[in-house]
Amino acid sequence: MADGNRRSPAAAVFDALGSDYEKAFAASGAHRASLAWLLERLPPGSRVLDVGSGTGRPTAATLTAAGHRVLGVDVSPVMVEIASRQVPEAEFRCGDIRGLPLEDGSLDAVCVYFALLQMSRAEQADLVRRLALVLRPGGLFALATVPLDVEGFDGVFMGQGVRVTSFAAQAVTALVREAGLTVLSEESVLFTPAHPDATPEPQLFLHGRREGGEAAPAG
After folding, report:
1. Which domain holds residue 178?
2. Rounded to two decimals, what is the model's pTM?
3. What are the residue boundaries of the Methyltransferase domain, all occurrences included (predicted)?
4. CATH of residue 60
5. Quick check: is 75 in a domain?
6. DSSP code of 26?
7. What is the pLDDT of residues 113-156, one digit of tens each?
8. String of b and e for 56-74 (b: at least 16 CB within 10 Å)?
9. Domain count, the chain
């Protein structure tokens, strides 16, 4: 979370992108398919956490339209303002998910679409373990990331400088399983955001379920 008047690097990037981010990724069929996967399996009126909720579309908008209760969390105040305006049926909070109090076993689903990439590998692993615990037994987990074996890579994303850390696809799957989740499906795609400064990027969409019991301890 940003300290005082200092914004986190992720907040600065997504404050600058604003609604351009939504436009760039609007054509993602894999994202829509992931949401359809959730909608087919969620009980009516489910409680869903959307980590890195962005502009609220498509994730929060799709889930609330189906009658689910959504809490979106994002580090970017610009994104939270846009999301609150576009999807008033959902609740949005500006903050770092790593510092947000969450009750174990309290959620029916957690969505984490491209929200891990500006965290360290240890932070990503710790967060996935924590998010696994907030799911009720049988709760669903949807994650999307760019599956590259990179750590602290300085690059450019839609004209913004970013420092990216990620895992290769097999390591992402292992991370989710080590958190105590059963991996139910995976889809790998190549997607080019609709932005003049964007380049094609590999994407991994993964779905899992908490079967019960405790997630693996950190260590």
Report:
1. 9-210
2. 0.90
3. 48-139
4. 3.40.50.150
5. yes
6. T
7. 999 999 999 999 999 999 999 999 999 999 999 999 999 998 88
8. bbbbbbbbbebebebbbbb
9. 1
